[in-house]
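pinned: reference chain
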Amino acid sequence: MLTHRIIPCLDVRDGRVVKGVRFSGLRDAGDPAERAAAYEAQGADELVMLDVSATPEGRATAVVTVQKIRAVLGIPLTVGGGVRRAENAGALLEAGADKVSVNTAAVENPALISEIAERFGRQCAVLALDAARVPGAPDDAPRWEVVTQSGKHRTGLDAIAWAREAQARGAGEILLTSWDKDGTRSGYDTALLAAVSAAVHVPVIASGGAATAEHLALALQAGADAVLAASIFHDGDFTVAQVKAALVALGFEGRIRL
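pinned: its structure tokens
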């Protein structure tokens, strides 16, 4: 039986961890390296770092920040934000990332996924898929479209179809964020998770909306292979160890890395 991963997320802007709601209203949440070391000590299985201002500002991800995090981190690290070419991915991997996520640039140039997978291995190629519910779609038959530019641009691209295409192009994992749920602490979009998980066979990481261990449990039950969270860890609501203990108590014993 496969174990599920608990993954804290560091959204970084100008070398600082930030957190907001639906990718806006960002507030300071600490030093990336200090946060990374603390979360590993608490039992995090992996860490994700997303440079949330790299794409909107048209620049590459801060390699120095990645190097500082790797200097204190022993667990796998996924880095994204501002990756436009395979060379950008290579620079991040050399700086200490284990995997690189692509979002906006992959939508604009889907071949980027294949280039990264072919040069560095598909285990290094992660699709960061930000999805928003299509307005007017009925609740019993929801549809989702891909959003880019930190949620500012609705592409009209069907999120489920894009997940399938990314997998076919070599994505080894999908980091799936619900734009509607991000930072709201109202729980993950489990319908979205179920739809994407059923459409692909690569691991799916749930992101956007966690506030309780029950929310994480529902995401795993919906088909997620891993759950990502930020606010609940940054704000000190729970440690990673507390979340894992709660999941075991909820019936995930033997399926959580302790």
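why pinned: The domain at 5-252 is CATH 3.20.20.70 (TIM Barrel). The mean pLDDT is 91.
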